[in-house]
Amino acid sequence: MQAPLASPTLPPPAPGDGELLLSAFRKVAAALRLTLPEQAAILGVSRTTIAGWKATPGPDPDKLDRMALFVAIFGLAGQAFPGTAGAEGWLRRPNTAAPFAGTAPLALLFQGRFESLLRTYDHLQNLARVW
At 126, is the secondary structure helix, strand, or coil? Predict the structure, then answer.
């Protein structure tokens, strides 16, 4: 039996945060050079859906939560591993820590499970407590 997930300390997005979160998500995705299918997988939507979003993903709280977690993951990885390629390098390199089991954190996020975002966020939060 798996241990329960820790509650993220990230405040839940407000309904009006969609445009801001989508913009931040797109900036992080561009910085990581993520393809449209990779972005869609992280958000748990189809390629067509994400390509059709103009200014906001709408009021779907699941998608807003996913965007907020992904942007927070990138920020925490950048703090933990500073430098231009620090966050990207950490996200792309295989990792032996428990949540990743030898795969790269991004590979876990590409599985499209909300739990993967939470586990990655929690792992980085735990690293932050150590610094």
Answer: helix
- Show the tokens assigned to 76: 């925490």
CA 19 to chain centroid, in Å, comes to 17
15: which DSSP letter? G
CB atoms inside a 10 Å sphere around CB 29: 21
Task: Please state, in angstroms and rounded to a whole number, the distance separating the CA atoms of residues 2 and 63.
Answer: 25
pLDDT of residue 128: 78
Please say whether the beta carbons of 109 and 116 come within 8 A: yes
Q: Following DSSP, what letter does each residue of 21-89 receive, concatenated? A: HHHHHHHHHHHTT--HHHHHHHHTS-HHHHHH-SS---S-HHHHHHHHHHHHHHHHHHHHS-STTHHHH
The one-letter code for the residue type at 38 is E
In the chain, which stretches have pLDDT less than 70?
Answer: 1-15, 55-59, 84, 130-131
Which tokens go with 129? 């407590």
Rounded CA separation 37/48 (Å): 9
- Give residue limits of the domains in the chain: 16-130
pTM (two decimals): 0.84
